[in-house]
Amino acid sequence: CGRGPGGCRGGRTDMALRCAASLAAGRQPRGPRREGAMRWSSAAKPSAVKINEKASREKILTLESMNPQVKAVEYAVRGPIVLKAGEIEKELRKGIKKPFTEVIKANIGDAHAMGQRPITFLRQVVALCTYPNLLDSPSFPEDAKKRARRILQGCGGNSLGSYTASQGINCIREDVASYIERRDGGVPADPDNIYLTTGASDGISAILKILISGGGKSRTGVMIPIPQYPLYSAAISELDAIQVNYYLDEENCWALNVNELRRALNEAKAYCNPKVLCIINPGNPTGQVQNRKCIEDVIHFAWEEKLFLLADEVYQDNVYSEGCQFHSFKKILYEMGPEYYNNVELASFHSTSKGYMGECGYRGGYMEVINLHPEIKGQLVKLLSVRLCPPVSGQAAMDIVVNPPVPGEESYAQFIKEKESVLNNLAKKAKLTEDMFNKIPGIHCNPLQGAMYAFPRIFIPSKAIEEAKAHKMAPDMFYCMKLLEETGICVVPGSGFGQREGTYHFRMTILPPVEKLKILLEKVKDFHIKFLEKYA
Predict the structure, then answer these.
(1) pTM of the predicted model as reported, rounded to 2 decimal places
(2) What is the distance between the alpha carbons of residues 222 and 201, in angstroms, rounded to a whole number?
(3) What class does CATH assign to 120-402?
(4) What pLDDT, on the 0 to 100 scale, is given for residue 338?
(5) Using alpha carbons only, what angle is made at residue 509 by residues 508 and 510, rounded to the nearest 5 degrees?
(6) CA distance 476 to 464
(7) How many CB atoms sit inside 10 A of residue 519's CB?
(8) Do the beta carbons of residue 288 and residue 330 sit within 8 Å?
């Protein structure tokens, strides 16, 4: 409304006329207020405004009104046990006495938080990209400067602070494609099939989002390994898809058996439309590394049953056991011939967070998607464009993972020394953890062939199971909570990853420094023996 000649709004003038007419008729003027409503006046004195604390209205967003799919989401890696660990840390800082002096968070694969040193070259390039004035500094090697300049040239305004294309910076996607070709022995990779992502998780969630459709018995079923990384079950719940479990063979070093895939698929067809098969290789939380024959069998199964394959390969650098080797699904698919390579739809994922880098906080990652329908490719780019672009510093970090120093460059010697030191150290800790767990009565740990976790099976006496039920806890949650409260060690119960009925496990990272890891394992040993004595 515009103001009237006297500077009053037209509505106020009309109200004044009505008030005058009411007074002339001997009536009290009535304003436009609804009965019981309080009109706020900025001129009112604070003492004149009384707030009835009990009259606060109901919240719009409550547990009953919220999105039920979000409420169904569970993420054990940062679940109740971790919240409890945070409470204990606060108590320790306040000086409250405990049987330990610190909480050891062995629940998550956060390498730098556990003391792993960053790779110098990666940090140099990201620093140069972040503050280009350093490009004139003699403190930085020329090979780092060369990469930083190339990345900055791909950024709007030569700045890491600008948005990028939704698929990511073009020159980095080209570097990813070149890396995949080198890794896979010359198997061609197209930069147009590469999508830079906010960690691998972002890519996995995006692909699942575009795959899931239908209702009732035609609702999309997503086949996931049990045990699994809880990202998968969380994303499936959030998207209201159907989770189809297939069980890894614990008695055979967590092997993947195609007969088990077939059982799970055939049973699921009765209540959903299974069309996605997720593979984690090397395994999380189980640490197995799939051999070539197994991958060939899985690809044939996906081709035969017309399943879209998701290959989570973020631990591809983390292979420790002799006789084990990482094989990418893309490479094996190509080598199986054109009937497979030109038809099986495959999305593969990698990240800066794991491997020898451990750069979790940069949230860098990529996915390569092959054999996607051209129209779906456009839909995927549209979906990714909603989040504008992945963090540009994470894109830069991903570039160094796929484009590291090479022999002849000045940073190569230091880079390869740091990389091998991290991986050799992890291999040593994997063997140490396996050996020490298998010396404890009532604990069995399969070989840690790869990744960065142990997933030991633990014996829990029936008396402890009954007490867990009384506390409305899963038995392994009860065990892990007791472990935390008595030793300060935070691990994740196996029930958060899925396990066969009647078996109990926990997941523990092997990332702590060797001496600290030895202390941790000794504490677990002492706790477990006391636990068995108490509840046997």
Answers:
(1) 0.85
(2) 16
(3) alpha beta
(4) 96
(5) 120
(6) 10
(7) 14
(8) no
* CATH level 3 topology of 69-115+413-535: Aspartate Aminotransferase, domain 1 (3.90.1150)
Task: Using the CB atoms, write b or e for 351-388: b if 16+ within 10 Å.
Answer: bbbbbbbbbbbbbbbbbbbbbbeeeeeeebeeebeeee
The residues pairing with 3 across neighbouring beta strands, listed in sequence order, are 9
Q: Is the CB of residue 282 less than 8 Å from the CB of residue 315?
A: yes
Give the pLDDT confidence score for residue 230 in this predicted structure: 87
What values do phi and psi take at 309, rounded to 5? -95, 130
Q: What is the pLDDT of residues 73-123, one digit of tens each?
A: 666 556 788 889 999 999 999 999 999 999 998 988 899 998 999 999 999
Q: What angle do CA 469, 473, 476 make, to 5 degrees?
A: 105
**pLDDT, tens only, 384-410:** 989 899 999 999 999 999 999 999 999
Instruction: Report in angstroms the alpha-carbon separations of 370 from 115, 125, 190.
Output: 37, 30, 9
Domain ranges of the chain: 69-115+413-535, 120-402
- CA angle 34–38–42, rounded 5-degree value: 130
pLDDT of residue 282: 96
Instruction: Give the number of other CB atoms < 10 A from CB of residue 100.
Output: 16
